[in-house]
Amino acid sequence: MFAALSSLGTCPRGERAQRPTIATLCTLGALAPRTTAGAGDPSLRERLVSRVRATLSQRADPAAPRRPHLHARDRLAPMAIDLSLTEEQQHIQDAVRSFVDERVLPVAVQNDMEHKLDMSLIDGMRELGILGAPIPTEWGGAGLDFIAEALICEEIERGEAALRTLISVHVGLNSLSLLGNANDEQKERWLRPQATGEKLACFGLTEPDAGSDVAAMKTTAIKQGDGTYVLNGEKSWISFGTTADHALVFAKTDPAAAHKGISAFVVDLKHDEGVSTQLYDHKLGVWAGDTSSLFFSDARLPADRLIGAEGEGFKIAMYSLDHGRFTVAAGAVGVIRACLEASTKYANERETMGKKIGTHQFVQDFIAQMAADYEMSRLLVWKAAWAKNAGVRNTRETSLAKWIATEAAFRSAHNALQIHGAMGFDEETGIARFFRNSRAPIIYEGTTQIHKMMQAEHALGWRELNGKGAPADLHRSLAPVGA
Fold first, then answer.
1. Among 207, 199, 179, 287, which residue's Cα sits nearest to residue 243?
2. pLDDT tens string 136-170
3. Is 188 a catalytic residue?
4. Quick one: 66 and 126 in the same domain?
5. At 123, phi and psi to the nearest 5?
6. What is the CATH number of the domain that holds 59?
7. Out of 55, 90, 274, 462, which could bridge 457 as a Cys pair, Cβ 3.0 to 4.6 Å?
8. HSE (CB half, 13 Å, CA atoms) of 194?
9. The pTM of the whole model exceeds 0.70
């Protein structure tokens, strides 16, 4: 688990040439699967502690102060932006990168071509603690900050978009929403098993006639005399809708009240009667993932399934999207990097007209654009993470990161395919997979056009994306005293 992995965060940045592999980390006990015999053996912990102490003794100044571990819940004192990664974040990045290199990438193209949802990889994500990374340890998660979450999403989508999509719906849209809006009893019942990865979760907002216009939803949850709610309707394009155990579903408890009539409920997809799912068989991309419709026919939900109060569903949904969009943007950064890495490798190998294609200026133009897009997109994601870690609302920052990064990812995939020529058109090279998979994020969790409208209205002064009276400049509002 990442909690144990965090203890390894003590080696200087310059000593990262040999990254810890998943196998090595498991040997140390840091990432031991829950099913591994002896994983809870005290001797294993003793070996880990011994390794940490030995590493600490090699540092020039073991007593040197370390940058504090951040979390959005902590409402930290103002601090300046620091773009260096903590040692903990470096080790998390290395561990997830090794997981992707050793387990995801070797089977990614084949899984995609076979439209195979590889549950063994989801099990690996569970073992690493990815399925509860930013959830506090008190609720079964790893308690990591949002920079770490961004690094995780980047590395995972470098390997497979479907797996990052799982993080978006399971962690971002569902689990973090429960963390921020559910009561303790609901968190114990629904959040804890999701944070440990025992249960998988999805998010039910979109409908056939309600995408960007959320208030147009037709799904209803009508309260009965005994206090229960009867749920009827359909949700469409739900990622992991068939695989998930739980869903956070939005429905009209007051059909005449538009946004104010929407409420949020937890639905047990495996046990609630009147609930069914259907896979989408023909999609442009994300072939290695599960995309489904959810159907509710007189599904009766107990009163304790209501999250928050009646009529708070729209507010909860927007809160959810601030988290989901963040993971989408961070994943898009991984796509850009994957395209850049594949393109530079190919441009240094492929020759035309007696020289490597990397010497051609048009190819260099494509690569330069990818390099710039990677840096810009990552900085926007990290700025949103910084705001999340400081505990301030970040709708504007997250929206901007999602818009820019997803568009840049699709552009990078397009350019990578052009660099590879006919080879890029071949599914077996994996470039076409990046092209197909990067198209969906431009649509879901707010189309590019919705995000442009949001940013324009904010700039025009017609809308305050971070809430009424929110500071216009986070850099000044979160600056250290005296800065």
1. 199
2. 999 999 999 999 999 999 999 999 999 999 999 99
3. no
4. yes
5. -60, -40
6. 1.10.540.10
7. 462
8. 33
9. yes
